[in-house]
Design goal:
Elements: H1 8-12, H2 14-34, H3 38-53, H4 58-68, H5 72-86, H6 91-98, H7 103-115, H8 118-172, H9 181-217, H10 222-230, H11 233-256, H12 261-271, H13 275-289, H14 294-300, H15 304-307, H16 310-322, H17 325-383
Helix pairs in contact: 2-5, 3-4, 3-8, 4-5, 5-6, 6-7, 7-8, 7-12, 8-9, 8-17, 9-10, 9-17, 11-12, 11-17, 12-13, 14-16, 16-17
């Protein structure tokens, strides 16, 4: 679907807006990185899908959406889009410059513009965004309980160490007998917190935040956190299901939309957040470019069986031979989406025993360290 969007008045102002666009670009990118625009981004795709189907001019559509979005950043981005399109650029190229949407979404928009199926492809994108939003909310709700328990345990543990253990130290120093190892450790911790608690407690909390940031959030080091999660049985299963669902749905949708498999794999590789799967998609793209089949490329990757099961690989191979690869991939995506939902719901149930064991062992250690020497004191008093 070709979008005609230049009117004489708008075209005459294109050159002036082009100069302003370059100045805006750097400012927009800074704000885009610093502040979340998720709700406005979803609204943008949803409204674009609806209004393109109505036959409105693309400039009028963007102006209408711009007047409705709430954040200044999003208004700035849409303003840049309008300026780009007025200069004769297609919608997908203009969106690609803004980095507002992921690569596979841009690929779908590009195919839609070139094939006249832009409205249908935008509806697919809008539906996928809704699914992603629902899934993320389920993950957050499932993780609230374990995160709350862990944080509460850390806070209570630090509070006991700072305020209560120093008092036990005075009691245990009265005992002339040899103290058990656990009690010695408790006494040592009590002395340390009595002397340096004002430094240790805030330092521990700040250090914990810094470690979590660099292990799970910071772009250059978050691979460490991904490696840890991928080697923990409960989270490993969830990550595999999420990524296989994404792999099937995105790749199947892009292939059904008419995108070549090499371009589809490139878009998929850019959209994934997991380093191991990104390496797999880059490898598949290179192998297929060299003339290998999808199935052979998948089997030749060393760790492919750990990432995509053998049965799924065989299914993909059969679909490739029969010419129904795209449809089979979409079915895989739908199947694993349901599995992901169930795993996310059961995540709290699966993590609960682990948390109980860890907390129980910590409580047992402290109890033994306190109770054993107290019995020693009672024996001393009885002998007197």
């Amino acid at each position: 679907m070709k979008l005609k969007n230049k009117s004489p008045k708008l075209a005459s102002s294109g050159k002036n807006k082009k100069i302003v666009k370059k100045k805006k670009s750097t400012e927009k990118k800074k704000f885009h990185i610093l502040f979340g625009i998720g709700p406005d981004r979803e609204y943008f795709v949803e409204m674009l899908s609806m209004l393109v189907g109505s036959g409105m001019d693309i400039i009028l559509i963007l102006e209408s959406i711009k007047s409705e979005v709430k954040t200044r950043v999003m208004k700035l981005i849409i303003g840049e889009l309008i300026s780009d399109i007025q200069d004769g650029n297609p919608l997908w190229k203009s969106l690609n410059r803004t980095r507002l949407l992921s690569d596979h979404v841009i690929a779908l928009i590009r195919v839609g513009e070139e094939s006249g199926r832009l409205q249908e492809n935008l509806q697919v994108i809008s539906e996928q965004q809704k699914k992603d939003r629902i899934f993320k909310s389920r993950i957050r709700s499932a993780m609230m309980y374990p995160v709350f328990v862990i944080l509460l345990t850390v806070v209570v543990g630090l509070g006991i160490s700072w305020f209560i253990m120093p008092r036990f130290v005075r009691l245990f120093t009265m005992v002339d007998k040899e103290l058990p190892l656990l009690t010695k450790i408790l006494v040592w911790l009590g002395n340390v917190f009595a002397s340096y608690g004002a430094i240790i407690v805030p330092g521990t909390l700040i250090g914990l935040v810094i470690v979590l940031y660099f292990v799970f959030i910071y772009k250059r080091t978050k691979g460490i956190g991904q490696w840890l999660l991928f080697h923990f049985p409960i989270t490993k299963r969830l990550i595999q299901e999420i990524e296989i669902s994404r792999f099937g749905y995105i790749l199947g949708t892009l292939l059904n939309a008419g995108l070549p498999i090499v371009d589809a794999l490139e878009a998929l590789g850019r959209s994934t957040t997991y380093h191991n799967y990104k390496k797999l998609y880059i490898y598949l793209k290179a192998e297929i470019q060299d003339g290998n089949s999808f199935m052979n490329a998948l089997q030749n990757f060393k760790r492919s069986k750990k990432m995509i099961s053998t049965s799924l690989q065989q299914m993909i191979g059969s679909a490739e031979k029969s010419g129904f690869l795209a449809d089979s991939l979409e079915r895989i995506g739908s199947t694993y989406e349901l599995k992901t939902e169930l795993t996310a719901k059961n995540l709290t149930t699966m993590l609960e025993p682990v948390l109980l064991v860890v907390i129980g062992l910590a409580v047992l250690g402290v109890a033994l360290a306190v109770i054993v020497p107290i019995y020693g004191l009672l024996d001393t008093f009885n002998s007197v």
